[in-house]
Every structure is written in structure tokens, then in C-alpha cells.
Q: What sequence folds into this?
């Protein structure tokens, strides 16, 4: 089995910072692209940032300059450093990873369970 577990969410004041982590565990052969998404009640889940296996990153406009995505391939872990947080950043943040399980050839997308980020004004 493969599992993604997010951590690092919480309550922070506007202008503050949080660092989210997403750790992959289980029978992992390789991890390809990874990404962070977020969702608020009544809205669709939206992309925040992605990072390739080689470290190439992409961000949506509303987080550029404030959020930084990174990964530690040796630890099978991805991070999202969030600075200058705004109340509109309040959401449940999810990580996603394209993972090939050990001793298999097919890659599948796996999601974490989500971590709540609340930014107070």
C-alpha cells in the first residue's frame, strides 16, 4: 500500500507563515510529479503548485511570490512554504503524487487526506 500524509496546517494570523509537509510511505518504486491543491466548502479543488521529479516548479498566479514548493526525494517528502498568508488562503490543503508502486510498471495518482489551513484577519 502507498499512503500520503499531510501535516503542518493550523491557525495563523494574516501575514504569517506556515509550512506544510506531505510524506509518502509504503511500497514505493518511484515518485514522479507532485503537487499541492486546496479546497474550500462549496468550491472545486484547485491547483496551487506543482513540482516535477527533477525539481521544476509551477505556481498559480495567486500564490506566486508567496508560496514555495519543494521536495526531498531521499525522504519521499514534499513541502509547501506559505508566507504572507491572507484570509482567502483559508482552505483544506491536499497533496497529490504520481507514484509507481514497487515491482509494478503502472503509475497512479495518490492523494493525502488534507490538512486545514485557517488564516485570520
A:
Amino acid at each position: 500500500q502507498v499512503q500520503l500524509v499531510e501535516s503542518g496546517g493550523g491557525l495563523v494570523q494574516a501575514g504569517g507563515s506556515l509550512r506544510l509537509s506531505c510524506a509518502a510511505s509504503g511500497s514505493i518504486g518511484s515518485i514522479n510529479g507532485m503537487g499541492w491543491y486546496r479546497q474550500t466548502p462549496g468550491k472545486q479543488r484547485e491547483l496551487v503548485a506543482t513540482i516535477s521529479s527533477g525539481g521544476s516548479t509551477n505556481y498559480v498566479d495567486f500564490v506566486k511570490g508567496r508560496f514555495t514548493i519543494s521536495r526531498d526525494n531521499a525522504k519521499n517528502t514534499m513541502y509547501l512554504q506559505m508566507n504572507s498568508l491572507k484570509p482567502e488562503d483559508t482552505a483544506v490543503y491536499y497533496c497529490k503524487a504520481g507514484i509507481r508502486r514497487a515491482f509494478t510498471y503502472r503509475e497512479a495518482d495518490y492523494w493525502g487526506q488534507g490538512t486545514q489551513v485557517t488564516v485570520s484577519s
